[in-house]
Amino acid sequence: MLCCMPGVAFVPALLVSWSSAAFITSYVIAVLAGHVEPLVPYISDTGTKPPESGIFGFMINISALLGVITMCIRYLLIEKQNESSHFIRSSCNVFSLCVGLMGCTGMGIVATFQELSVPSVHDIGALMAFGSGVVYITLQSIISYKSCPQWNTYLVCHIRMAISVISCIAFIPMIVFASKISMTKIDWTPDEKDYTYHVVSAICEWTVAFGFVFFFLTFIRDFQ
């Protein structure tokens, strides 16, 4: 079905399906292996121990590469549209691309430097990935509104902005509650200290991650 899509719509479609598979596959393997509890572990927790660590690292690195390709195509698409409509400054489009590429770099760091092996570097990568990602989808939502009604429908713009707002709201408690956790571990139990902080932060992390997935899903029609 992906090969039958017109234009370059297969790129964001592949990004969405591959990233979703990366999250779900590593989660299932980690739970079945008994490495994490089924109740909302951090995404990184599901890719810390072998065998899931190798699968997680490989698939997330591919997702980062697909993200770079998607963002570059999106940049070129907006530039082409802007030649005739002049709805935004070119510098805004460039800035959005740079922020997005920074987020993809963060994804690569997360995939390469595992949570328990190099926690400080891993955390920096995660902050880059999620922080830059939230800024990127917010900027893209604003650009989408600017390009209405010639290049986008208001329904698509509303959906993108809703995803951006939800991701922004979830990003803040994700960081706040994660900063309150006093230990780095992956095998949490309900009776442990900081367990509540861990659960709330993890729920927010999954919310932001799949917010990105659903946001890129809206690019498919544009790329056609």
How are the secondary structure elements laid out?
Blueprint: H1 10-32, H2 52-85, H3 90-112, H4 119-146, H5 154-180, H6 195-217, H7 219-223
Helix pairs in contact: 1-2, 1-6, 2-3, 3-4, 4-5, 4-6, 5-6
Shape: elongated
User: What distance separates the N and C termini?
Assistant: 14 Å
Reported for the largest beta sheet, the result is: none
Helix percent reads over 70%
Total number of helices? 7
Structural class by secondary-structure content: mainly alpha
Series of H and E elements: HHHHHHH
Membrane topology: Multi-pass membrane protein
Transmembrane segments: 54-78, 90-112, 124-143, 155-177, 197-220
Family: Belongs to the DRAM/TMEM150 family.
Subcellular location: Endomembrane system
Question: How would you describe the overall organization of this protein?
Answer:
It holds the Pfam family Frag1. It comes from Probosciger aterrimus. Belongs to the DRAM/TMEM150 family. It is found in: Endomembrane system. InterPro entries: CWH43_N, DRAM/TMEM150_Autophagy_Mod. With 224 residues, the protein is an all-alpha fold. It has one domain. It is 73% helix and 0% strand. It contains seven helices and no strands. Helix 1 packs antiparallel against helix 6 and helix 4 runs antiparallel to helix 5. The two termini are 14 Å apart. The mean pLDDT is 93.
Question: Summarize this, please?
Answer:
Helices cover 73% and strands 0% of the residues. The chain has seven helices and no strands.
Key structural traits:
mainly alpha; DRAM1 protein; DRAM/TMEM150_Autophagy_Mod
